[in-house]
């Protein structure tokens, strides 16, 4: 609890700053002007404008978890009751999307992905009884950036549902809300919302105990102020991420107010977790000592760390979050919240750790008893490195980092290689600060166990960016919030590096030239003509199988052109992996998992290679770690010398895996230049990446399309033709 002096200051701040008299125009639709206002009659009728999908906004922001794009209906469906819902379209959506009923609050009644969902059609819809009672929400969203639809939803069977307690800031009075809670059954939750930022869902008993008048221990008890605190936690976090609606680049605009944060209480204990966060929501364990941290304005204002930390999980950016930093990088923005609130409360400037801790830390860094490994340190110690950066360079270092991560693009959402995440983080810190931080990284043990490829990439980065040595480089690691070693000047230092992201690993402008330059077909066994379209494919015998030496380039009703190669001369076409259709010419079939195993075994044995050399020898097109016009992007995966590539002759190209839902590439590992993906059996693809020398196999979704290599039992299995006597072989498709 706050002491009396701070408590009185707290009261004054509320009276002066936050008892805002919100004025809301009476409206007749949900989300008009981005506000929530339910049109409630008997039966309950809600007019809903289509919202921007929270997943679309998450993609723009490059964050870990999305906020919620639900609309509050105002009703609760008791266990065993059915729901009759009438839908009238008022404005047709341009994307054809339909509204949906979602039963249950994310977290409290199950996670977003397993809550019962019901797509609504025009006219009357019936939702069957559920085993447990649930809050009723509406989800009517557009995955594109221009939601346009509007519907009227009527809940017809009024005897089957009840209204739940609902506090809408600026509309509902506290007394009205108290009466609603007193009249509602105990199992029915209550909702408090500010219409733009948060939706708080708690049992009435918790709200009455910790928030509303009646218990002076937790005064001042004001719902509006509590909602304001959640809004401010979010806005301070956004500022720490470099987000602003005044930014000329819309990529850096604030999260859409169509999407709000659910804050709720678990029905069971969360154990040691206390609070947690995932899609759509943050949630607190169902114990009084924890609930008070979310519902008491006094507690939340005095110690926002837990709530801000969980909200930080939603805002985390995965491609600078190595696996061991899951509970660390969230705190970039939490410190900002704590600093702002403490300053308002008249507390001393916030410093996370005391001087004794830092003295011990500097001694450990200066005189390590064993070689340090940062990635195995405690979360507290790991975040101390970022405390140090904050002292040296100020909070702007994290704003710029967050902006650059967004500018890397949505493919950065799924950097699954942990070493690449580490490299991405360390390299961006060097580029942003403009200083050679390698000595500091070494002192903290951040280069320990890092893939040698990425260590060398950091060295190359210093050279490419022409970052000159500084007299500060070898003392940065000695900086603490309590001391600044010589020869450092007054801190923070200005950032002298990059402010925006520039991709230096791009596909070459002329991909066909690169293919012709770095792929070779002279080792072919023969040529095959596809009579369906007259295209000729070189093939080669490996063991007892003939393989196309290029990807299939047959245009059927299911094929998709590679965006940068519409004719298919470089990469061939993409084909849906879920289709059972054999797109190969007659006499040839899709390469199966066993075909790939046989191929790799034969190449390894025949050319006397180890495992890494074998996978590398199958690639062609050039490696951008070695040549600027290569088709394979930079990465730690091996790439053979050209002589071996020519001998093996398989000529694998990194066409990636195409996602037809987004007309692009879902992840960085799937994008053009990052890897080769080949359709095999239904739903399965064989993967070859720039990140590794190991091939893998996994199943993907119906929206995904990949390259195809055709194979057959060799007609020359016992008498392999040489390149001198091959002949063009024509097989009629109808044979």
UniProtKB/TrEMBL annotation:
Database matches in Gene3D superfamilies: Peptidase M60, enhancin-like domain 1, Peptidase M60, enhancin-like domain 2, Peptidase M60, enhancin-like domain 3
Cleaved signal peptide residues: none
Domain Peptidase M60 as annotated: residue spans: 68-394
Annotated InterPro entries: Fib_succ_major, M60-like_N, Pep_M60_3, Peptidase_M60_dom, TCAF
Domain of life: Bacteria
Coiled-coil residues: none
Pfam families in alphabetical order: Fib_succ_major (PF09603), M60-like_N (PF17291), Peptidase_M60 (PF13402)
PROSITE patterns documented for this protein: PEPTIDASE_M60
NCBIfam families for this protein: Fib_succ_major (TIGR02145)
Name of the protein: Peptidase M60 domain-containing protein
């Amino acid at each position: 609890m706050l002491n009396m002096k701070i408590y009185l200051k707290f009261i004054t701040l509320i009276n002066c700053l936050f008892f805002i008299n919100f004025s809301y125009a009476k409206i007749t639709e949900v989300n008009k002007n981005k506000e929530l206002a339910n049109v409630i009659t008997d039966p309950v009728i809600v007019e809903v404008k289509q919202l921007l999908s929270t997943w679309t906004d998450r993609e723009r922001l490059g964050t870990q978890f999305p906020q919620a794009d639900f609309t509050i209906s105002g009703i609760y469906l008791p266990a065993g009751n059915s729901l009759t819902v009438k839908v009238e379209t008022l404005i047709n959506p341009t994307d054809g999307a339909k509204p949906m009923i979602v039963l249950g609050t994310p977290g409290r009644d199950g996670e977003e992905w397993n809550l019962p969902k019901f797509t609504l059609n025009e006219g009357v819809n019936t939702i069957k009884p559920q085993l447990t009672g649930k809050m009723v929400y509406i989800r009517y969203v557009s995955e594109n950036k221009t939601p346009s639809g509007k519907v009227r939803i009527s809940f017809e069977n009024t005897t089957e549902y009840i209204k739940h307690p609902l506090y809408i800031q600026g509309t509902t009075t506290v007394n009205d809300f108290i009466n609603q809670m007193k009249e509602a059954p105990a199992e029915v939750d209550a909702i408090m919302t500010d219409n733009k930022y948060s939706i708080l869902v708690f049992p009435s008993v918790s709200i009455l105990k910790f928030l509303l008048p009646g218990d002076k221990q937790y005064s001042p008890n004001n719902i509006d102020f509590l909602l304001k605190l959640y809004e401010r936690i979010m806005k301070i976090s956004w500022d720490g991420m470099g987000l602003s609606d005044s930014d000329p680049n819309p990529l850096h605009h604030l999260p859409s107010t169509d999407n709000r944060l659910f804050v709720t209480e678990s029905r069971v204990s969360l154990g040691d977790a206390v609070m947690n966060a995932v899609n759509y929501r943050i949630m607190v364990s169902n114990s009084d000592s924890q609930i008070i941290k979310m519902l008491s304005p006094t507690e939340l204002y005095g110690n926002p760390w837990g709530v801000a930390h969980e909200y930080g999980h939603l805002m985390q950016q995965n491609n600078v979050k190595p696996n061991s930093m899951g509970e660390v990088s969230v705190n970039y923005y939490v410190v900002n919240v704590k600093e702002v609130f403490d300053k308002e409360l008249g507390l001393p400037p916030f410093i996370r750790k005391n001087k004794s801790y830092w003295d011990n830390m500097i001694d450990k860094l200066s005189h390590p008893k064993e070689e340090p490994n940062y990635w195995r340190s405690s979360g507290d110690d790991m975040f101390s490195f970022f405390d140090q950066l904050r002292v040296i360079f100020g909070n702007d270092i994290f704003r710029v980092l967050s902006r650059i991560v967004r500018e890397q693009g949505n493919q950065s959402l799924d950097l699954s290689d942990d070493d690449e995440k580490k490299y991405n983080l360390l390299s961006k810190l060097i580029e942003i600060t403009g200083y050679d931080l390698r000595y500091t990284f070494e002192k903290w043990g951040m280069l320990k166990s890092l893939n040698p490829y990425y260590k060398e990439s950091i060295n190359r980065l210093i050279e490419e960016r022409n970052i000159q040595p500084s007299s500060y480089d070898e003392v940065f690691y000695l900086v603490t919030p309590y001391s600044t070693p010589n020869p450092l000047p007054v801190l923070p230092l200005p950032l002298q590096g990059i402010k925006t992201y520039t991709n230096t690993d791009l596909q070459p402008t002329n991909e066909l030239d690169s293919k012709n330059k770095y792929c070779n077909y002279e080792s072919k066994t023969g040529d095959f003509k596809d009579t369906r379209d007259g295209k000729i494919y070189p093939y080669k015998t490996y063991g007892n199988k003939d393989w196309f030496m290029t990807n299939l380039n047959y245009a059927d009703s299911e094929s998709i052109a590679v965006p940068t190669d519409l004719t298919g001369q470089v990469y061939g076409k993409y084909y849906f992996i879920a289709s059972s259709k054999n797109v190969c010419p007659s006499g040839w079939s899709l390469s199966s998992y066993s075909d790939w195993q046989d191929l790799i075994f034969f190449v390894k044995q025949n050319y006397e290679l180890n495992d890494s050399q074998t996978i590398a020898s199958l690639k062609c097109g050039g490696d951008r770690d070695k040549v600027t016009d290569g088709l394979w992007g930079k990465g730690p995966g091996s790439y053979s010398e050209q002589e071996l590539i020519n001998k093996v002759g398989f000529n694998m190209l990194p066409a990636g895996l195409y996602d037809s839902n987004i007309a692009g590439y879902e992840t960085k590992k799937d994008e053009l230049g990052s890897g080769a993906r080949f359709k095999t059996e239904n739903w399965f693809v064989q993967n070859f990446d720039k990140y590794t020398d190991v091939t893998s196999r996994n199943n993907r979704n119906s929206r995904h399309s990949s390259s195809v290599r055709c194979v057959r039992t060799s007609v020359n299995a016992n008498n392999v033709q040489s390149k001198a006597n091959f002949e063009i072989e024509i097989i009629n498709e109808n044979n």
